[in-house]
């Protein structure tokens, strides 16, 4: 079953409209959607390594634009939309204390969340809610999201065939490690 799902994802990742789907997922993930774009980014690059830089660029641009939407949610609609999202992610506790310190370290928070598995949407919403300088937010977002997606693209572009071969030979192990890391990250983030 895992093999069929993997093959289906790789085949779909090469679909002519996959870039649009990646853009939509990247946009949504930065403001409200819980699934990271890496789940489509990686197989898309493996399926078409000659398009690695375009794929990473689209993912970065859409993610930053989605971050602006998240910023707008926090700035204009924190009570109506932002708080329910943060509550659903388990990140609403301590918001008042966070707000006091956030603007002092906001650029670093955006950089850190944009690169790490920490939900970037939490930082985009909180950046708007605390009225972090929009230029600071944009520059930090472009750097962080660009680093994240272009490093992945570069590694897959440089080592794609061996990585793909390893994944295909050790699919069960790779899938298990991925799930453990994914659920482990959610568990750790839940209690931060």
TrEMBL record:
Record-annotated VTT domain positions:
58-155
* Entry annotated with the keyword Transmembrane helix: yes
Q: Where are the transmembrane segments?
A: 52-77, 171-189
Entry keyword set: Membrane, Transmembrane, Transmembrane helix
Q: Which InterPro entries does UniProt cross-reference here?
A: DedA_domain, VTT_dom
Transmembrane among keywords: yes
Kindly name one Pfam family recorded for this protein.
VTT_dom
**Name by which UniProt lists this protein:** SNARE associated Golgi protein
Organism listed in the record: Jannaschia seosinensis
